[in-house]
Amino acid sequence: MPLLTTSDVGTDVHPGLKGPTDPTAGAHTHSAATMVPDQSRAERTQSYAVADFPVPHGREEDWRFTPVAELAALFADESTGNCLDWAEQLPQGVTLTSMSVQEWQATGAPRPADRAAVVAAANSGGVAVLDVPAEAELTEPVRINLTGDDQGVVHGHLLVRVGRHARATIVVGHSGTSTYSEMLTLDVADGAQVTFVSLQEWADDAIHLGQHDVIVGRDASVRHIAVTLGGHLVRLNTNASYRAPGGSFEALGVYFADAGQHLEHRLFVDHGVPHCRSNVEYKGALQGETAHTVWVGDVLIRAAAEGTDTYELNRNLILTEGARADSVPNLEIETGQIEGAGHASATGRFDDQQLFYLMARGIPEDQARRLVVRGFFASVVARIGVPEVQERLMAAIDLELEQASV
């Protein structure tokens, strides 16, 4: 039984543990229901076998926010043979090959953790393998652009391996129309430094489910960035684990939901070895009737993970009536011998006082709204570290606001 488990909305820095605070977050409470979970995060099913995952009905904890009725095609254990169009730009020394699903399983890669992921892994027809060699210091990002052309259901499978002490930035972009489910494994060797960016810029009718597994080597540093702006229904599960002490994992996310969009991001950081660090920060904005976002952040600090330092933050900005944001931070601690652990969640409406302040100084309302929203996202966007992504993101946010004001 964990020493401490919390699942709350608000700011939480546990007694005796250090962590930042968020003065804008709501009140924080503990109840019997949050202190004793139905199931530890460590006990949830992980398997390579499709039969181990029944078809979700929407009442399961992992699926209760998701409109599962729209996902029947991605739950069906059927190979379609469809593929997205690939275009890649590989710096010198980086290779793209393939392996079978059975070979991928033999590597000991993390197992799928839900029905959609295990179906994607089993029916992908093979695994694309991107290798960044040891000691490489890439001066340009690796770029992979995946484009859907309404091919029907597509199962994708990508393994990214980064060698010892390599430094690399990898950008995977998604656009067009598709019903797409993916398994992605990012295996980072000892001492490497990696930034991985996943861009969801789909057309309005696209559906995208994904499981991203990040394995952090000894003294390695990994930054995983999710930018989700397009698609009708997008749900990404990002899971991080550590191979040895000294690893650092940072997860950053930015999302903007319009009317009719469902954008869902789930994080699981599994601290199973000592002296590792994690930091999660996701920010989202919503506008329009039925716009819906979901963020669930799970952090598990196992008994062996002494010296852990972890924090997670989610903030949501609701710009119009009719939008809904669900935010659930969870922290499960099995040892008190840690450096720090905390979480915070805050959801609020557009600050009319900030808008009035800017307009009173002669700034037109549409420009004032844009400045407030830009300021809200600034702390995350500035840390992405990929100028082309930062510029595209802010331009896309400006476009969203311009369309809303028409």
- Secondary-structure-based class equals alpha/beta
Query: For the terminal residues, how far apart are their CA atoms?
Result: 54 Å
Describe the largest sheet.
18 strands, mixed
Radius of gyration: 21 Å
List SSEs in N-to-C order: EEHHEEHHEEEEEEEEEEEEEEHHH
Protein model, in words:
- It is built from seven helices and 18 strands.
- It is globular.
- It folds into two domains: 4-351, no CATH class; 352-406, no CATH class.
- The longest helix has 19 residues, at 387-405.
- Helix content is 17%, strand content 43%.
- The protein is an alpha/beta fold.
- Helix 5 packs across helix 6.
- It has an 18-stranded mixed sheet that branches.
- It has helices at residues 32-35, 72-75, 101-106, 115-123, 352-359, 365-381, 387-405, and strands spanning 4-7, 11-13, 85-89, 95-99, 127-132, 142-162, 167-188, 193-202, 207-216, 221-228, 233-242, 248-257, 262-271, 277-286, 292-301, 309-318, 324-333, 340-349.
